[in-house]
Amino acid sequence: MSKWFIEIIKNQIDSNINLKLGAKPYAENQVMNLNVDITDLIRDTGFEPEFEFEEGVSETIKWYKNR
Question: pTM for this one?
């Protein structure tokens, strides 16, 4: 997960949180970059995301806080 995704989640929960990104060393042979392409999923299933990432995070946080 990129720093961008993590910062979006953090800012919607509490922008004062200190993430300390990079404080823990990576494991040997750890995958350093994951990129998701859902083109095949859309083509094969017709699935279309209902929300962009930021809106989905916001809706998930609202749902969780109301539980």
Answer: 0.64
pLDDT in tens, 42-53: 999 999 999 998
Where helices occur in the chain by DSSP H, the ranges are: 3-13, 39-45, 53-65
DSSP helix/strand/coil, 49: coil
Contact at 8 Å (CB) between 59 and 49?
no
Which residues have CB under 8 Å from 42's CB, separation 6+? 48
CA proximity to 5, closest of 42, 40, 54, 51? 54
